[in-house]
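Aim 2 progress update. The chain analyzed this quarter is reproduced below.
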Amino acid sequence: MPPRATATRPVGTVTRGTTNPNRLRRMDRWIAAVHGAELRRAAEPVAVDLGYGAAPWTAVELLLRLRTVAPHARVVGVEIDPARVAAARPYARAGLDFRHGGFEVPVSRPPLLIRAANVLRQYDEGEVTGVWRRLCARLAPASGSSRGGLLVEGTCDEIGRRHVWVALGPEGPRTVTFATRLGSLDHPSDLAERLPKALIHRNVPGEPVHAFLRDFDRAWAAAAPYASYGARQRWIRAVRDLTADWPVTDGPVRWRQGEVTVRWEALAPRA
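Predicted structure tokens:
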């Protein structure tokens, strides 16, 4: 389990801090599409960019992208390295702030969004569930017609071409999304190297995520005739075939973006 917070020590450990502009655009685009309504309904929605890294680009970009769907959204960048917080503060503006902290998420109100990209990669698999529980407990709770806040935790490559993330609500994991720039893909299983920590060591025979990627590759091969119409049409056909055996939760509008989202229960590691 991660260390406990104290008055002077945030929860967690310092990451490598690797970051690049536009690295998280696929994740941000998905968040705006599937969580935008929740953000719009709130009077002053708070989003947290947890572990934004050595430069504040991802927090700046998150604010801009969220405000296209929720004009009153606020973003707080949270970093466990105080030097990174000091370096980011000149970029603060109305609606964007930077704070020192970790998994305790030091914001004054429960956030409607916590985005934690490439943060848990360095942790042990056994630590992930504890971190998820801690972060989900900080989310805005479900109430009335609201499902509550959203935690999006995942991993991508250095320039954001390939990305896999888990979406969690206050109740726990909901879905897993695979997203890619289709021109960079030879096989869907190429995304295995970007599986989040909860799944990356489970890509072995007998585990659901391994079976899913195997079936995805088979569907991709069967859809080869559609390649003459472009990689997007081939992807759409392959995902459509997957829906016969896997609980895909989205539709062609998202598939055209090089995405597919599957219910967590179908890919969750075996006990």
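Residues 25-41 form the longest helix (17 residues). The chain has nine helices and eight strands. These observations will guide the mutagenesis experiments scheduled for the next reporting period.
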